[in-house]
Design a protein that fits this description.
CATH class of the largest domain: Alpha Beta
Distance between the termini: 55 Å
Number of domains: 3
Order of helices and strands: EHEHEEEHHHHHHHEEEEEEEHH
Shape: globular
Structural class: alpha+beta
Strand order of the largest sheet: 4-5-8-6-7
Number of strands: 12
CATH topology of the largest domain: Uridine Diphospho-n-acetylenolpyruvylglucosamine Reductase, domain 3
Number of helices: 11
Largest sheet: 5 strands, antiparallel
Strand content: 15-25%
Helix content: 25-40%
Mean pLDDT: 96
Oligomer: single chain
Radius of gyration: 20 Å
Low-confidence stretches: none
């Protein structure tokens, strides 16, 4: 049986109290839903001496509209400029929220494809953004990892995937961040020293050992998504071994803004679950002006050329690579219906 180590559990009622605890205890970790952290603690991948619970903090919850400064406004307010999602909002809440489903259907779809209902009922948007990267050689028990000699990400000095280098290539496996990147979303990071805001696209770095820029004493406070102009179409596709529970072997998020004549004004495409950070496909600006259904093959070819899976998950990387253009086409063809 895998047992948890000893730790002290804190239940602050205010965000400021949680941030103070994180600053006070250098060996503290925050826990919201705990759906990823608790199994990792049982595997001795994390052994914090203090856990700071976030479930009781009302400031981290809620989904609604806001003006450009993040101040809440009514749903029918002419001053609404963005959708704000508290980091403590559960994935179930996001997937079922009428406003999210109407304005950003790809985000609702991505949140609804995370794991299984029990996990989505506990797992949060902040937790999904900060989800630890995954690898065949990392997400194992301490006994298994010790027998192999550990790995670069935890307790060892060798990456068993690349065999060389000092950079971890464990895969980014969260569902919602690729969608948020295509929507131009930003996040507010809070610490005891203040708040900073940065685009979700800048939140991740290409090192699976710690693949975000979030500091140890910071928490994701909320996600802010600018409301779209008319003509936005979005889609999300996820490849996994089973249709529930499993992490993605490949995920595709897409967003296109169409002109009144159905031409592509802008196109954003993010491919994830292949490396340590989601990959924004470049060169799509050259496809602007043409009808969406005419650029599907070109966009798929760009994604195939730029995205290269590694042997960091259990499925053959060549097969995963071959699936990239297949699922890009499916996402864009879905968006092109009726255009």
């Amino acid at each position: 049986m895998l047992r948890l180590h000893e730790y002290r559990y804190h239940r602050p009622a205010r965000l400021a109290d949680a941030l103070a605890l994180l600053r006070e205890h250098e060996d503290a970790l925050a826990i919201a839903g705990g759906t990823d952290l608790m199994p990792n603690m049982k595997h001795r991948l994390f052994t914090p001496r203090h856990l700071v619970a976030l479930k009781g903090i009302a400031e981290l919850r809620g989904i609604g509209l806001a003006d450009g400064a993040g101040n809440p406004v009514a749903d029918d307010s002419p001053h609404a400029r963005e959708l704000v999602i508290g980091a403590g909002a559960t994935l179930t809440e996001v997937s079922r929220n009428p406003l999210v489903r109407r304005v950003f259907p790809s985000l609702a779809a991505a949140a609804g494809k995370v794991a299984a209902p029990q996990i989505r009922n506990s797992g949060t948007m902040g937790g999904n953004l900060c989800l630890d990267t995954r690898c065949t050689y990392y997400n194992q028990s301490y006994f298994w990892r010790e027998a192999l000699g550990f790995c670069l990400k935890k307790d060892g000095e060798v990456c068993h995937v690349t065999k060389v280098g000092r950079k971890c290539v464990a895969a980014h496996s969260a569902d919602t961040p690729p969608v948020l990147m295509t929507l131009g979303a930003s996040i507010d990071l809070a610490s005891a020293n203040g708040t900073r805001t940065l685009p979700v696209a800048d939140f991740f770095i290409a090192d699976g050992k710690a693949n975000t820029v979030r500091r140890r004493d910071e928490l994701v406070h909320r996600i802010r998504i600018p409301l779209p102009a008319p003509g936005l179409r979005t889609a999300y596709r996820k490849v996994r071994q089973r249709n529930s529970v499993d992490y993605p072997l490949l995920s595709i998020a897409a967003a296109a803004r169409l002109t009144p004549g159905s031409g592509v004004e802008s196109l954003s495409l993010v491919v994830s679950a292949l490396g340590a950070k989601p990959r924004m496909v470049s060169g799509l600006d050259k496809l602007a002006g043409a009808p969406l259904h005419e650029v599907v093959d070109a966009a798929a070819a760009l994604a195939f050329k730029q995205c290269h899976p590694l042997e960091n998950l259990i499925v053959d990387p060549d097969w995963r690579h071959a699936m990239v253009p297949v699922y890009v086409r499916r996402a864009l063809e879905e968006m092109a219906v009726g255009a």
